Amino acid sequence: MPEINFDHRQTAHCESGAMSALLRHNGLDISEPMVFGIANALTFAYIPLAKISGMPMIAYRMPPGRLIKGAASRLGITMQFERFRDSKQGMQTLNDHLDQGRPVGMQASVYWLPYFPKDMRFHFNAHNLVAYGYEGENYLLSDPTFETPVQSSYQALEKARFVKGMLAPKGLIYYPKDIPTQRDLPGAIRKAINSSVNMMLRTPLPVIGVRGIRCVAGKLRAMGNSHEKKESYNKLVIGHMVRMQEEIGTGGAGFRFLYASFLQESAALMDNNKLDEVSKRFTDTGDEWRRFALFSAKMLKGRIELDYDKLADQLLLVADMEGECYRQLRQAIRQ
Amino acid sequence: MKQDEVPQDQSAAFEGQKKPLYVIDEDGEYTVALSSGWEAEEVVLDQAIAQFETLYKDARRRVEQGLSAPLEYHMYHQRMDISVLAQSTGFFKWQVRRHIKPEPFSRLTDNKLARYQEALGLSAAELRSMPKEDS
Question: Could you give the number of structural domains in chain A?
């Protein structure tokens, strides 16, 4: 196969990282925060019915796959997506792409990728990475989670790409097929911000957006007032929430810092001071999310007393601050 | 978060890796800084791992008492639970619940056993036996 010079960069989040790397390779230099923001990938959702390992689903970003599709549609990019029934066929097609000198994005399970540290391996099937070459049975990979390029054997990669279950990757391969040269970035940014603001403020469901944050605050308070002694389960839920916010590559504060960075970049691009102001406020909001994580961790560790009301109050503070940010954002992009 | 506030708590789970955070530098510009870990994150990660440890250690006891097949131990040891294992094998949850009992497990056909091998990444011999020590 021809050697592909792939510019590996570590990013905060795998999906925005893989997408921005693929676009950059194909001549569109775009930052990770810009990809994330323009796809309006930011959200907050609390879905108690969708249980993951017995824990309610808490998400700080849109479901896997939405980011790539969202960014592509806003920028007028045509993406090619390929899924496979047969794993051998899926591996052969990967080789074919690489033989043609084309790096491709792939969806895979974190658990079966051999280069992940043991403590970071969980059954999350919607991890994203880029393949840019192979040497015999060894694949050269640019995984945005890691500082340097990594490698995997044929068997391990096949297993990771073809696990079954929730969010099964089915060997998904993707790459940009057509990138238009004419782009209206400010227009796309305006649309994306508008869409995020609407989702966070106006989704008619009490578990999504700013109302969703308030809803979780209410749940935490209810845990404290409940007569049932479910402290160990409650602690798992709190820990799970903090993991979703911090530990699963979010760039800090459940993608809030990533989004603030997007706002700052957009402000400069559109010469819009108001956006810059909101970016600062958004950073402050992120700091309060971090404080929520810190309080939670101290309570879980027993360094301070488990105080559900304190956690709930902290979340309400975050909800107020975020709500204000979205209202200001709406003003800032009004022409 | 400001650049000089980036936690460097040397998280063991990272195995020497660092992870990027979006932070503001002294001029208020966003930039990327590498963190070697944050204690708060480590607490919740340890909690999640300890939860699986508790589960597979309890399962080991049940296997030794003859109440469960080694399959239950391997399920938790591979960081799965009934519903994840059901999804990744294509069995119903009630079937998995049945299969982790010693008697139904011993009667599993090769075909069904192969589905568990595939999902858990273990050989038939490994699935039928217990490792001497937890790894």
Answer: 2
